[in-house]
């Protein structure tokens, strides 16, 4: 049960006589109603209120639910001043320090006052309605907002607010809770008029059936609601926090698992798997040999990772290196020219950053370029299976793994990371680049104001912790297992 449902249930229990027990010594509402009748007669005789046409008794057909024997069905107009003229006040009569209550100052549903302003702080034109401390203020405009409250002080308000006095010391909070109860709320909103600005009519409210308990029971009902509703509010806040947590759960857990993975805490280290240092040195020597044999071109080496640069401690068998150090070719991006697009039937797939926002390549809404342009672009960079595509514009820092042999081209918003597979697994590189470790570094190197972007120079120098190859595989396998479990839990909770 949600907090909203629980609140509604409590209010309905309250106005049907099931929230607190009845007590014989507290008398009956019948006697209370007689007091109300006598008080109204006295006030009429004293010309303090106007004589009204008697309202008919509430018929059995009008009663929406059963009530205790000590209660009585009455009409709102017979126990309140709803049908009496409101006290109007002209702009010239309004003093600067008088509280001026506007509809937007009241929180919907709760009736809490959000803003308190004096008359001098508002531009008041036209006649306003005067109200007094202790009166019920009922908003007849868009009653589904349930802007209903007991006035904490004297003030003025819009003509859309109806100030109400209750006779015979009827508890005003009891009536407020009744007006907010589900049955009443449903009925009132079913008989409103007006489409854009629905209102409830005066005659409807005057004839509204009200379940009236004895005074003492009204107080006990209010006291019990005042005790329980704050707990419901707290429950609602916890419910909202839980909803936020559940919405964030898959991603938050994923990021936590990735953080554990790239810091060496997800799986244990094994001595027999060697070290990343040894593996890195072997590959470095092999590259030197191939350069000497003129089989590959010599590139400008990246600066080694200093001890001061290291972001956090890593296992002894791991090594801090730079992102391009684990790539078999220089990190580069796609074409910088805006291409001429073609149709799907006669074109070549053309990917940009928008196509990898989920850390997967989404082929559903991609664009296509001509075969001639493809042949030109493919000479520069030919993406292939196991490459990692990194968004350097737009959703910066998001990476996707190319998981199939497919011919396509890329725009400048994507960079290609081609892993040296003897040094790093493509799946591990993909997870690593999407981890908080890399994300924080990418964010710190963003350039530009309107559309932030990552420069290739900065991407190449990103620091990464490198485990031995065998440990990388164990990390990837464990991640796949745990992420699948997390997704299963998330789906089960929906």
Provide an overview of this structure.
This protein has 494 residues and is of the alpha+beta class. It folds into three domains: 1-80 and 166-234, no CATH class; 89-163, Adenine-n6-DNA-methyltransferase TaqI, Chain A, domain 2, CATH 3.90.220.20; 269-480, Alpha-Beta Complex (Adenine-n6-DNA-methyltransferase TaqI, Chain A, domain 2). The protein has helices at 3-15, 29-45, 76-79, 172-180, 182-190, 202-206, 215-262, 276-292, 371-380, 426-433, 436-444, 456-460, 469-493; strands at 72-75, 88-89, 99-101, 117-118, 128-131, 136-139, 148-150, 155-157, 161-164, 209-212, 319-322, 332-333, 341-342, 348-351, 367-369, 388-391, 399-401, 409-410, 414-417, 463-466. The strands form six sheets. A five-stranded mixed beta sheet has the order 2-5-8-3-4, with no helix packed on it. The chain has a four-stranded antiparallel beta sheet with strand order 12-19-16-17, with helices on one face. Helix 1 (3-15) packs across helix 4 (172-180), helix 1 runs antiparallel to helix 7 (215-262) and helix 7 (215-262) packs antiparallel against helix 13. It is elongated. The two termini are 15 Å apart. The mean pLDDT is 91.
């Amino acid at each position: 049960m949600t907090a909203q449902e629980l609140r509604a249930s409590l209010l309905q229990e309250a106005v049907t006589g099931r929230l607190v027990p009845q007590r014989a010594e507290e008398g009956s509402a019948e006697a209370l109603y007689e007091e109300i009748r006598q008080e109204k007669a006295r006030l009429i005789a004293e010309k303090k209120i106007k004589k009204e046409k008697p309202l008919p008794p509430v018929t059995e057909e009008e009663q929406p639910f059963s009530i205790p024997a000590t209660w009585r069905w009455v009409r709102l107009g017979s126990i309140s001043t709803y049908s009496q003229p409101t006290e109007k006040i002209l702009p010239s009569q309004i003093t600067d320090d008088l509280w001026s209550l506007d509809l937007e100052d009241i929180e919907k549903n709760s009736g809490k006052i959000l803003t308190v302003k004096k008359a001098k702080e508002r531009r008041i034109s036209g006649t306003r309605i005067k109200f007094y401390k202790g009166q019920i203020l009922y908003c007849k405009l868009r009653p589904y907002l349930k802007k209903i409250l007991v006035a904490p002080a004297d003030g003025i308000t819009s003509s859309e607010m109806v100030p109400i006095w209750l006779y015979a010391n009827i508890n005003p909070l009891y009536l407020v809770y009744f007006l907010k109860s589900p049955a009443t709320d449903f009925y009132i909103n079913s008989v409103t008029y007006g489409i854009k600005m629905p209102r409830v009519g005066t005659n409807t409210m005057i004839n509204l059936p009200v379940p009236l308990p004895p005074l003492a029971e009204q107080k006990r009902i209010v006291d019990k609601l005042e005790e329980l509703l704050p707990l419901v509010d707290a429950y609602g806040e916890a419910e909202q926090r839980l909803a936020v947590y559940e919405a964030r759960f898959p991603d938050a857990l994923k990021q936590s698992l990735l953080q554990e993975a790239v810091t060496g805490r997800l799986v244990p280290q094994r001595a027999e798997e060697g070290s990343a240092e040894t593996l890195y040195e072997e590959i470095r020597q092999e590259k030197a040999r191939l350069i000497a044999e003129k089989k590959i071109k010599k590139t400008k080496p990246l600066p080694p990772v200093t001890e001061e640069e290291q972001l956090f401690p890593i296992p002894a068998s791991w090594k801090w290196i730079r992102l391009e150090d684990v790539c078999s070719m220089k990190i580069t991006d796609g074409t910088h020219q805006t291409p001429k697009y073609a149709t799907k039937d006669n074109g070549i797939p053309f990917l940009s950053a928008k196509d990898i926002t989920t850390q997967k390549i989404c082929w559903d809404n991609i664009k296509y370029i001509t075969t001639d342009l493809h042949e030109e672009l493919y000479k520069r960079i030919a993406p292939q299976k196991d490459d990692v595509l990194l968004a350097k514009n737009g959703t910066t820092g998001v990476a996707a793994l190319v998981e199939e042999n497919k011919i396509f081209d890329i725009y400048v918003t994507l960079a290609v990371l081609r892993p040296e597979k003897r040094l790093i697994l493509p799946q591990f590189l993909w997870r690593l680049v999407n981890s908080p470790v890399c994300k924080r570094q990418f964010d710190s190197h963003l350039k530009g104001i309107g559309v932030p972007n990552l420069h290739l120079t900065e991407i190449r120098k990103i620091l990464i912790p490198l485990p031995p190859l065998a440990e990388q595989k164990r990390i990837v396998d464990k991640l796949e297992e745990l992420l699948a479990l997390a997704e299963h839990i998330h789906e089960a909770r929906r």
